[in-house]
Amino acid sequence: MEQQRNGCPREYTIAAMRHDTRVTRAISTQETLTFHGLGGVGHRDARGYRRGMHVLVTGGAGFVGSAVVARLVERGHRVRVLDALLPAVHPETTCGPPGAEFRLGDVRDATVVESALDGVDVVCHQAAMVGLGLDLEDAPDYVGCNDLGTAVLLSAMARKRVTDLVLAGSMVVYGEGRYLCSRHGAVAPGPRARADLDAGRFEPPCPHCGRPLISALVGEDAPLDPRNVYAASKVAQEHLAAAWARASGGRALVLRYHNVYGPGMPKDTPYAGVASLFRSALARGEAPRVFEDGAQRRDFVHVTDVAGANMAAIDAVGELPEGSVRRYNVGSGTVRTIGEMAAALAGAWGGPAPVVTGEYRLGDVRHITADSARLRRELGWRARTPFEEGVRAFAREPLRGE
How far apart are the first and last CA of the chain? Predict the structure, then answer.
């Protein structure tokens, strides 16, 4: 491990490896490198990418998971997919993505999970129940799928001595994100009151003086403040991964996804993202319905870029110190409003203009936008799909179930 000037250990990141003299030499000779003493399995090619690994992708038939699997197969890894094919998101799916071994099974089933871990080097844990859902009746399902499922997986990984984990996290762990007050600086507004939302007062005020706030980018070290059941379950997933890493000597890399969109999103379900809801409405010939006033700020990131972030994470997780966890935001770096997404999709589809309804969901946050500088700096990743280009393509591409 390299040392920082203050004596603290610094991860030997993929970005750093590409400046290694061994890599520079290999680029000119096209040789394949095998690194010893740097952690991880498999070998690295001339660009510093890990190859030849056996990767288990839980939820690998899903929206993000299938995109990750496609990239892994393209890179030449051996891929095994474990997916329960739950009807809510897989109404017509009967098999896994091409190029991968598929096992039908639930991550809450310890026997199934332990068998799926045979011979595996790295686990990419995408299986989860996502979205705000309908109401508190969904709470047992969120906790069961996300937290019990993760606990069963981690317990099996400890028994099978599988030490490398990439965990699909979410920006929902931050709650309202980061805000600045002209008088009090950085502040953390509490949950928005129902009376304010009913009156159309959607912006959270400064909790100290009541002044208007400015939304700012949130970094990975921000306090966690989950505001709904789904968010609470994603926080618990991260804590479980940290406890597993400490107890087993494992390594975990958490990717906190922001608003992911793109081909393969499930249609007509409250458990998908807002982009899917807008796209589903347009396919029915209806105007997208935009809640609140449409000015909610988000970071929409294309699924192919999220798959790329997972590839960078899989490359890097083996270089982390034993027993450690590292967290990264995954966002495009471009802030858009929900109203802008609805309008861009409607324009690209050629459908009716969005309707701003003033409705709200009590568990929604007003603004949440990512600072993804750590991921760019440490793993050499960046989003490559411009918003306009991604939305135009998304308008033409089928949703899951169409």
Answer: 49
* CATH node for 52-177+218-396: 3.40.50.720
Which token pair is 376?
């760019």
Residues near 200 by Cβ (< 8 Å), separated by ≥ 6? 293, 358
Q: Which residue type, as a one-letter code, is found at position 363?
A: G
Closest to 250 in 3D by CA, of 309, 315, 326: 326
> Residue 297, class by beta-carbon neighbours within 10 Å (0-12 exposed, 13-18 middle, 19+ buried)?
middle
What is the distance between the alpha carbons of residues 185 and 135, in angstroms, rounded to a whole number? Answer: 35
Determine the Cα–Cα distance for residues 107 and 31; give it in Å rounded to an integer.
Answer: 39
- Whether residue 337 contacts residue 296, with contact meaning beta carbons closer than 8 Å, is answered with yes
pLDDT value of position 97? 83
pLDDT at position 332 is 96
Check residue 321 and report its DSSP letter.
P
CB-based burial, 18-54: b 16+ in 10 Å, e otherwise: bebeebeebeeeeeebebeeebbebebbbebbbebbb
Which residue reads 């129940």 in tokens? 129
Mean pLDDT for back-to-back runs of 10 residues, the chain (402 residues): 32 37 32 34 56 92 96 97 85 77 96 98 94 76 95 98 98 94 95 95 96 96 93 97 98 97 85 88 96 97 98 97 98 96 97 97 91 97 97 92 72
The whole-angstrom separation of Cα 116 and Cα 17 is: 31
